[in-house]
Amino acid sequence: MKINKQVEEVLNKQINAEFWSAYLYLSMSAYFETRALKGFANWMKIQYQEELTHAIKIFDYINNRGGVVKLEAIPDVPVKWNSILDVFQETYDHECKVTAGINNCYETALAQKDHAAANMLQWFIDEQSEEEANVLQIIDQLNLIGQENGQAIYHLDKELGTRVFVDSTQPTA
Ligand code: FEO
Fold first, then answer.
1. Angle between helices 38-64 and 84-111 (to 10 degrees)
2. CA 158 to ligand 1 centroid distance, Å
3. Atom 1 (ligand 1) nearest CA
4. Could you tell me the distance, in angstroms and rounded to a whole number, from the CA of residue 67 to the centre of ligand 1?
5. d(Cα 66, Cα 41) in Å, to the nearest integer?
6. Cα distance between residue 54 and residue 58, in whole Å
7. pLDDT in tens, 112-143
């Protein structure tokens, strides 16, 4: 059975939101580069890569269900923030909006009795919980060490610099 048209529409919107997220995190990575925070920049660049895989997972899904992918323009993203904490607070707020978008897709799929789409979206619901938790953990660490603690920021930067990209949309061997 081909994809339901209303589900197709909300999923296309979600592709755009995932690409916008990728853009946002790449911009945040560039911001950290300007502050010589290579580890934070690395963490954000990996976040960017993850968002691309999210967009492609939905892109592939629409194609595999005989739907039509509609790629829309990606709006501009911010380029400057007031602090490290400000960046992660915006990341968290943004992820909550992404979660709301995923929930809307899921509810549309259920309302349209498109169970295959609902099943695919379950993966995203789990992924969003994990993403929100990861960002909250960094916010907690930043609040704990304080904005002015250069040595602790240096160590957190080193820790975030160890993050490596794993395509979690692919099954593990
Ligand atoms: Fe694809 Fe961070 O949500």
1. 10
2. 24
3. 51
4. 22
5. 38
6. 7
7. 999 999 999 999 999 999 999 999 999 999 99
Residues with CB under 6 A from ligand 1: 18, 21, 51, 54, 95, 98, 131
CB 149 within 8 A of CB 83: no
Q: Which CATH superfamily is domain 5-160 in?
A: Ferritin, core subunit, four-helix bundle (1.20.1260.10)
Residue 173 confidence (pLDDT): 58
Q: From residue 49, how far is each of 114, 132, 166, 171 by CA, in Å?
A: 29, 17, 9, 17
Q: How far apart are CA 131 and CA 129, in angstroms?
A: 6
Looking at residue 172, its pLDDT comes to 72
How many beta carbons lie within 10 A of that of residue 75, not counting itself? 8
Identify the pLDDT of residue 171: 81
Quote the pLDDT of residue 147: 75
Residue keyed to tokens 């923030």: 81
User: Ligand 1 centroid vs 165 CA: distance in angstroms?
Assistant: 14
Domain ranges of the chain: 5-160
